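User: Is it possible to get a 3D structure for a protein together with its bound compound? The compound here is manganese (II) ion. I've pasted both below.
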Amino acid sequence: MTNGSLVLRFASGTDPGRRRRVNEDSVYANPRLLAVADGMGAHPHGEVASAVTLTAIAEMDVCLSQGESGETDPLAALSDACGVAAGRLTELAEKDRDLTGMGTTLTAMLWTDGGFAVAHVGDSRGYLLRDGSLTQFTHDHTMIQSLVDEGHLSPEQAEDNPRRSILIRALQAGGTPEPDLFTQEARDGDRYLLCSDGVTCVVKPEAIQETLSTTPDPEDVVARLIELANEAGGPDNISCVVADVVSGE
Ligand SMILES: [Mn+2]
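Assistant: Yes, that's possible. Here is the predicted structure of the complex:
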């Protein structure tokens, strides 16, 4: 769990929110791996898709950390694990037609030498709080975000757009995963947040920044963000992973 002299102090939590019966999100956090997956609501059994996907990612992490993986490059290992996850979703859907088309977002960060390897697909998000300012370091794979990128919509128009949850990329049964794969360098004092859109659809970046800046304990940050999303109506499942990069002993 040590990495140079830096280690992660982390917490995670998930909540169904106030309007949905089933929680289709999954979260995973250990000293080397942080991940959020949000099962796609437009298809049945998103909770299966998100859980199967995080299991594949967690297995990859175990193999990698025990030196049992043929792959030593963390980005390649993450990419392989996305392929394994998609393969399992496809297999399950072939056996059970109820699962046809099931899919999930995935934002996963693998702690590696001095930073993270990141795999990201869909509209869950990664944020970094560094020196008091908040940066989103993932890009939403949504139709609305592409309209913003192409200049057809302003970011303000995108914010409350009813179609903002339509995904253009996901990890899906029958599909080939195309995750964004990149590295993110870490510094002592960094605070990372991974969250599903159940947070960001109702909690504004300013409120996220304030909560991350003013709440020392990661456990309390997770609890507070879930509380804020529920206070705003809790329209979707809510999931967070918070990790502080700290000097290890
Ligand atoms: Mn969601």
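Helices lie at 46-65, 74-95, 143-149, 155-159, 197-200, 205-214, 218-231. DSSP finds seven helices and twelve strands in the chain.
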